[in-house]
Each structure stands twice: as C-alpha cells, then as structure tokens.
C-alpha cells in the first residue's frame, strides 16, 4: 500500500475525522451547472474518461461515500497499476467537473476542513450501467448527509479488513436480513465473512456517530438486532448467528453506547456485544482492536470494566 500518502499505522490523530463534531455541517461542492449526458458521452468517445475512471466509479458506487484515500485502496486491491492517491484525487476532480461524481466538504463554524467526500451522480450511474455494472444508486442516496460519517467509519473498517486480514472470505455492504417476529427486512451496515479452517465465521458491524439523538436512534436499530438474535434458528447453511461489533468514535463514546444498552435492557440471546472505534481499527494488529464491557461488583457496587480482546479468528 505504498501508493497511499500515509499508511494506517502512520496516521496519528487524537480524534477521528469521521467523528461527529460540534457545529459541524457539510456542503455540496459538486458541479452546479447542468451537464448534459451528450457531453459525458462525448468525453467517453474521445477517451477523456478512461478505463480506470470506471473502477473509480465502481468504488464510489459500492462504498456510497468515500474519500480519495479509500478509492485509492480500492483500486490497489483491484491490482490497478500506476495508481497513486494524487492521481486518484486528480481523476475524482475531473469526474466531479463532468458531474459524474459529486463532492461534499465538511465545515465547522464556517471553517472548511480537509475532509472531502465523494458520491455518485446520475451520469456516473449511466456510465456504470453502460458497462453492465449493477448499480442501484438513486438521487436520494447522495444527499444522506446525516449518514455520511457513519458510512465512512464503516468503510474504513471494511478497507482495513480487505487490506490486512488474510482469511477474509467475503463481505457485503447493507445486507438484507429478515426478522422472524416482525417479518420486516433489516439492513446491518456491514457483514464480514471469515474463513476459519474451512468454516465460515460471520460478523455484523454497526456504525454509530455521536450526533444529537444518537442514543435513541442507536437503540432503535439495536432492538432490531435483538429480535434477529433472540429468534435465530440454526439451519444447515448457518449454524450460528454472526458475531456483533459496534463501531464508535472512541472509548468514551463506546462506553456511552454501552450504558445506553443497559438502560434499554438490550439483551442478545447467547451473544455479547463487541466494540471498536475508528482509531483502533487503524492499528496493524486489527485482531487486537476490539473490546468488551463487563459488569463487575466492587465493594457492593456494580462497575463496568473494559476488557481488550484478541479476536483469534482474524488471521493477519
């Protein structure tokens, strides 16, 4: 991964850029003028939109929202030659000017940050469909500003697994899960499947950001997971339910989520909740980036203890 400006282990920040910040906002920074499809087709015919641009579009489409660094990782994993983050950044800017991708900038109290987030545009979907790439993008997908950082945190975990974990068998973003009791369809943020000595071990990931009202929305989603786990029935294809991991912003944020689960009496049948956060997953030893909270009794009082875990099924 030497084509990245900074590898995971060299990133030294106190707080993740994918955390929620006070008085934060995001503004659209894409092409404002109306670009006709004929203009885009003309650029394709003149070879101004190149083969690796389609791979960039695939990355942005699959990841929903992505930084140039994530797109670079995606292309390197596809073994695209001569790709650097600087080149990806230039091509994303070009595709933005063609209104094939859109871009958002984050700002805090009128000061812009360096965080630039890319998403698909209508013409980008048209180009992908023209290459027979399945694309279900719809216009409302690219205006989910409130979900943006949660998606970015999920993507960071996904890319970390794809880069570092040798026994990653497959992954699925927003998989569909049918809940037995309510008969509703529920979409976890991410499903990772590991190959552990020829057997599949699955993990659900749920990304939580500390925006106003996050505790209530997190508990609402956790109740759906609770229904899934408490009514899970083994089948020939799935003898055990997936493990469950929450992605938070830092240890303090994770503890707040843990306290909310206690208050709401969230209880997964025979399944404990594992936690991690944005900066922990940047560690090269990602198998050691997970924690759990255990309730202990000290002097007659219940206290929570943070225990760091070694996820032995993850092979680096």
Task: Report what the structure shows.
- This protein has 316 residues and is an alpha+beta fold.
- Helix content is 32%, strand content 24%.
- The protein is built from eight helices and twelve strands.
- The strands form four sheets. The protein has a five-stranded mixed beta sheet. The chain has a three-stranded antiparallel beta sheet with strand order 1-2-3.
- The longest helix has 17 residues, at 148-164.
- It starts with 23 loop residues before the first strand and ends in a 7-residue tail after the last strand.
- The relative contact order is 0.12.
- The model has no long low-confidence stretch (mean pLDDT 89).
Please supply descriptive tags for the structure shown above.
Arc Repressor Mutant, subunit A, 12 strands, Trna Endonuclease, Chain: A, domain 1, alpha+beta
Strand content: 15-25%
**Broad CATH class of the largest domain:** Alpha Beta
Stretches where pLDDT is under 50 for at least 5 consecutive residues are: none
Radius of gyration: 21 Å
